[in-house]
Structures are given as structure tokens and as C-alpha cells.
């Protein structure tokens, strides 16, 4: 698709679709309960549809499905699950597959779940989930090299302490979900705090879970709870990782302004917004509620951007926004560095390589490092032929980059936005029209 530069900066309110992480969890966790779970404002996108299909294979039924509301009836907890008759397609969704591995490991003894994904997901590391689950006594098999497809057989797990090597909310969640069917409590230690949506939701569903700071990270202990849990009833806030594209669009120009309405204000998700403020944008927060996830409005006003350095302990709170940090770095004064972000290499694409390739083609002074990138700014961007490499977040970052480039940008792979934000380009064009 061809994208041409914007003549005027954005100045608008925006409402983004529901949070992807919370929607995945609400759908999958409904399989742990008996009654009707209600998800207001759920994200209906390719990734979350994969979770829905999997939940249905375990016996969850859809009672009502509209753009505003999804009502699901749980089968009555894991003890009442049906065994999926066929391998289940997790498509492009790492969250679906990893959380499912933990759920399936604690399924009734002998119940087999086989999970596969698309070409990208089949290359992503699953041993990081399989290994700690195996330590708890889980029965599971991966393809050579710890890749999908994955087969998981339900079994009664042992308790104990699992110290995770990497900061990953997906791995942490898989262990906590498996632990509900263990014989004794399980403690998970994470080296750096990651998003805590699983902990909040499982607590609201009636499990006994304690979370405390431990060094620079966090220690979470969960008691076994093999019986059915309470239903999930959530008002899913807007996704701050989707809203981040509009925040960047505004911040790239001194007169750019945007009000992001009704987004999640979970502190573990706001790293990018705090970074924007330290780069020189004006960022404001207005909390409207907390049930159990805090949500409200975020306002962003552009300014003269200064270079910034991101280190490993800041990475989890902005993991999905780092390609945008690189883009902002191209327009900031000085040398920006993102380090400790080697996780980006095993996302939906190698996001270090894809970001550096795309922005270099547009004329940025950016270098790849083993664990991030180095950007020298400010440097003018020019339109070019760029490729999203099938990765939704790279596609959206490059679309935002085209707004400040000189000349037209030809974006390949734009259809990937359907993974997390199907209406992205509708909003992109409507914001542009309002600005002109
Ligand atoms: C997610 C956690 C993050 C993030 C992903 C969604 C989640 O992955 O990148 O988009 O919902 O738990 P990791 O936990 O593997 O870093």
C-alpha cells in the first residue's frame, strides 16, 4: 500500500480497541469456570480469535458475540473439559500457545491437547515454557529445538519454586495456570516485573495468590485450586500498545496532540509513555476507574525530542513499543540506545532486524546491536519501499513513520495489522482527514 506524508500534525481524540493481553486471558480463563463470563469491549482480532477457538475446543460455548460484548459459558472448570479432537491452530499468537501450554499441563490426567501455529509461531521458542512446566512434572513434547507443534497431556503437578531466567509475562502466566492443578503451592520468581494481568484476573476469580517484590523482580505464590473458579467479568480497557502508535504519531511533531480515551493504565504497560515524557513530549494521565485493571485517558503533546537510553530493566514495560522508540529516536536530538532487548529477536518477526531494515531504508541513521539498536538523530526520513515482515507492530510503526517522511512510502505486508488492530488503517486515514 502507498502512504504519503501528512501535511499537518494530528490533533484528535482516539479510542483504540480492547487490550489484547486482557482479552486473551479472559477468553482462555473462562474455561476454568462454570457460569457465564462477560467481556465488555473485547478485542476481536486474529490473535484473540485463535484463543477463542481453543477455548471452544476445551468446551467453552459462545452465548453472545458482538463487537461490544462477548459472553462465554465455561464447561465447569478443567475437570469438565472436553478433549480437542484435532490439533488446535494458534495461528500467529504466542500468547495463545504459551498460556495454553500451562492450562493444558494442568488438565485432567491423560487429556491431550496438541497445538500448532503459523510459520512465524513455529520458529518461536517454546522450551522457555516447556522446561519450567516439566520441572513441575508436566508431560509435554515439542518439536526439535523446543519449537511448536507442542503436545501436552494433563497430569497432577508437583509444587515448588520456579526461578524464571527471562522476564516474560507469558511464561509466568503458563506456570501460574498449571500450578492451579498442583499438589502443593507453586512460587514463580521473575527477574524483572512483567505485566500482571494474569495475577489480577486469577485473584478476581477466587484463587489465592500472593505477589511481593524480590530484589529487582517479583515473587508470586499461588495455592492449588483444581475446582472451578468464579466467572470472569471484565470491562476490557483500550490497549495501550495499540494506542502507542497514535501517541508516537503526535509526539513526532511539536504541534501534534492526541487524547487516548479509555486505555489501560496498568503500570506494567506504561513504560513507553513515561519514556515519551523523558524524551520531551508532554504526557498526562487521568484515571477513571480500576476494576480490577486501572483505566483512563492519556494525553500526549509533541515537543522537541531528546535522545534517550533504554536498559534491560525498563524493557518489559515497553516490550511491544520498542520499534516505536527507534522511530522516535530518528527524530530526537542525539544518540539513542536501546539495550537488553534481545527478546525482540524472537517476537512475531526479528523486530531488531525488521526495525533497523525499515527505518534505514527510509534514511534513518540506525544500527543493529545484538540486544537492541543505536539511533543517531535527528535525521529526515524519506519515503521508500519497506516490508513489515508479516509483523503487525512493524507494519504500524512504518505507517506512522511515513507520516513524517518526504515522499511516498510503499508498505508491504500491511494486512498483518489484523493480528492486533484490524481497524488500524481506518483510524489512520480518519485522523489524517481530520488534520487536513
Ligand atoms: C504478552 C506478553 C509479552 C508481549 C506480548 C503479550 C502477554 O510477551 O510481548 O505481546 O499477553 O502476556 P512476553 O511475556 O513473552 O515478553
Description:
- The protein is of the alpha/beta class and 436 residues long.
- It has 2 domains: 2-17 and 238-434, UDP-n-acetylglucosamine1-carboxyvinyl-transferase, Chain (Alpha-beta prism); 20-222, Alpha-beta prism (UDP-n-acetylglucosamine1-carboxyvinyl-transferase, Chain).
- Helices cover 29% and strands 26% of the residues.
- The strands form 6 sheets. A 4-stranded mixed β-sheet has the order 2-15-17-16. A 4-stranded mixed β-sheet has the order 4-5-3-14, with helices on one face. Strands 6-7-9-8 form a 4-stranded mixed β-sheet, with helices on one face.
- The longest helix is centred in the N-terminal third of the chain and has 12 residues, at 46-57.
- The protein is globular, with a radius of gyration of 21 Å.
- The two termini are 20 Å apart.
- The model has no long low-confidence stretch (mean pLDDT 97).
- The structure holds shikimate-3-phosphate.
- Residues 21, 24, 95, 168-170, 173, 194-195, 319-320, 343 line the site of shikimate-3-phosphate.
